[in-house]
Design goal:
Layout: H1 2-13, H2 15-29, H3 39-58, E1 64-65, E2 71-72, H4 74-96, H5 103-106, H6 115-141, H7 152-177, H8 180-192, H9 210-216, H10 220-233, H11 238-241, H12 243-267
Helix pairs in contact: 1-12, 2-6, 3-4, 4-6, 4-7, 4-10, 6-7, 7-8, 7-10, 7-12
Length: about 280
Amino acid sequence: MKSALKVIKELIESFYLIKRLSIYELKSKNKNNYLGILWEFLNPSIQIVIYWFVFSALRDKDPIELIDGQEIEFFSWLLAAFFLWILFYQATIQGSKSIYTRLRMLSKMNFPMSIIPGYVIFSQFYVHIIMLSIAIIILNVNGHYISIYYLQLIYYMIAAFALIFSISLITSTLSTIIRDVHMLLNSTLRMLLYLSGVLWPLAILVEQFPKVMEALKINPLYYLVEGYRAALFGTEWHLITHWEYSLIFWIIVIVLFLFGSMLHVKFRRHFIDYL
């Protein structure tokens, strides 16, 4: 608990520094590219165009039926969660290697090491907000208009940051000690894409594999995915209607954060030894 409070205190006291470093991170990562920061938007845009071409142009996918009975064309249903997946994947991968790729900088700078995963993850949220805005425009063109349920997006973005940061505290520490952890995480996240309801609705499992579906619903990423869709399609106040999954989500996040904080604080004094 002391480690968790220490990390929280460092994040709060260094919030202004995190914002500045996150902007610098975004610029420096693309400084050698001709298109610069535009690649942050082009890469996910190309991916979503490929999915649209495969699932909508080459073969027709049946509409997805939501809990309130309305049917959503597959591309809109996919779009509502796809950019959340991009945020989760990119931020988790970048967060996992945030410390060991900056060990030389750490030997020269004087600030809490816990803010390094924080500002690396925070830099991905600038891209996410812009891509989410583009997705909202496309959804409105397709007839899925802005509603009061959009207020939930603020909650789910905060929840996404809490989950990604908690995971990154663990993985950034372990990958500094054992570099194979980063490669294992990369493979695990690619598998998670197919287990989180991003590309296909888990409801199709309800008849043949109901217990498997219930187990997959505990996945915290699935909770975020369904929350985004509930907000963007205006179906329900997801965090309240499914309060039991909200409770499970935050229990998982708190456990990950407590463990990650303990691990980070215990080993960070030895990080320079791995330089």
